[in-house]
């Protein structure tokens, strides 16, 4: 938990960050908390092989590959989106972590789920004991980990003598938002939690799926709690052109976070959440102290698609001089 003094001064709202981008497994990120519970469950079921799906930018897929390597399980990833000419970003890491990669091209999320099901059947027919993780490790169990994360963050910030009014985080498959919302209910606090949607088309019914995840998590760890639709707050206002595509404010968010705080945010996920905080601070529609939940995933910044566009949108980067 870290205070961001220069960003706070710049935008006129007190901002803290929860550093889930730092950790011990496979370059960290929010998926590690979900995998802690999911893979323990998989092992308890006797599974030896993890199968999951996602985009080639997927941090969930990369974290699954890393965590599987860390505990000696096999991992197969079914990945969509245009294939780059060279393995870059998470795709490169997926391969390094030893996952078996199935690249299925630019298919829809629905087709991707069907293709993954086929891969599961194929592996099972070969005698593998498979545990399939849904996209983004979005399960009730994963959300339960995030309810515990909320309680952890609440305790940490109280220990620093502070409170937060608003939590802002990047949101896609939903178990982060579902879990944080449940954690708030368990700890009987009233923090506003805003999910910044970075992949709107991932479900037909985004709020309905988030609600289901929250209540599945509640059934596991707090059965007396019932999460209502009105407990959830998410917005597509900062999605821009879509998942992994440009959005207003992303370059500025990367600029301010790196230059003022020495923290990297990425153009696919976290920069859209920071862009939301900056915009809401300027419009005075957010109340501080704000907690930016840093969900990790900074390595997409090394993907040439993004490096080139960030380079061209930030003139300060062109001040680099070669000393000969
Ligand atoms: C997966 C991911 C999210 C969204 O988390 P969900 O629980 O799937 O909504 C946000 N940020 C990063 C960096 C991620 O990898």
Report on the structure:
- The chain contains eleven helices and ten strands.
- By secondary structure, it is an alpha/beta fold.
- α2 crosses α3, α2 packs across α6 and α6 crosses α8.
- The longest helix has 20 residues.
- It is globular.
- The mean pLDDT is 95.
- Pyridoxal-5'-phosphate binds next to α3, β7 and α7.
What would you say about this model in short?
By secondary structure, the chain is α/β, with parallel strands linked by helices. The chain has 11 helices and 10 strands.
Q: Which of globular, elongated, flat, extended, rod-shaped describes the shape?
A: globular
Question: Could you report the average pLDDT, rounded to the nearest whole number?
Answer: 95
Distinct small-molecule ligands in the complex = pyridoxal-5'-phosphate
Structural class by SSE content: alpha/beta
Major sheet: 6 strands, mixed
Could you give the order of strands across the largest sheet? 1-2-10-7-8-9
Number of helices: 11
Name the beta content range: 5-15%
The low-confidence runs, each spanning 5 or more residues with pLDDT under 50, are none
Indicate the percent of residues in helices: 40-55%
């Amino acid at each position: 938990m870290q205070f961001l003094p220069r960003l706070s001064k710049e935008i006129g709202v007190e901002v803290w960050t929860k550093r889930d981008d730092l950790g011990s497994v496979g370059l960290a990120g929010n998926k590690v908390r979900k995998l802690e519970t999911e893979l323990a469950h998989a092992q308890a079921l006797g599974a030896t092989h993890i199968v999951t799906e996602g985009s080639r930018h997927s941090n969930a897929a990369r974290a699954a590959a890393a965590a599987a390597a860390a505990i000696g399980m096999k991992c197969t990833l079914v990945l969509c989106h245009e294939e780059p000419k060279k393995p870059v970003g998470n795709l490169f890491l997926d391969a390094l972590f030893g996952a078996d990669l199935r690249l299925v091209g630019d298919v829809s999320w629905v087709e991707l789920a069907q293709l993954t099901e086929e891969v599961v059947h194929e592996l099972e027919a070969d005698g593998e004991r498979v545990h399939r993780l849904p996209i983004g490790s979005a399960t009730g169990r994963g959300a339960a980990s995030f309810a515990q994360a909320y309680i952890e963050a609440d305790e940490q910030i109280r220990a620093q003598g502070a409170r937060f009014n608003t939590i802002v985080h990047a949101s896609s498959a939903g178990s982060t938002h579902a879990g944080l919302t449940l954690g708030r209910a368990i700890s009987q606090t009233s923090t506003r939690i805003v999910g910044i949607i970075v992949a709107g088309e991932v479900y037909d019914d985004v709020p309905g799926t988030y609600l289901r995840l929250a209540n599945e998590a509640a059934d596991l760890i707090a059965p007396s709690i019932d999460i209502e639709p009105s407990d959830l707050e998410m917005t597509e206002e900062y999605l821009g052109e879509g998942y992994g595509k440009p959005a207003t404010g992303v370059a500025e968010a990367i600029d301010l976070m790196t230059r003022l705080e020495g923290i990297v945010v990425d153009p696919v996920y976290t920069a859209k959440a920071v862009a939301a905080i900056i915009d809401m601070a300027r419009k005075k529609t957010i109340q501080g102290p704000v907690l930016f939940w840093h969900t990790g995933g900074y390595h997409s910044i090394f993907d040439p698609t993004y490096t080139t566009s960030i380079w061209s949108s930030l003139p300060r980067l062109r001040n680099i001089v070669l000393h000969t």
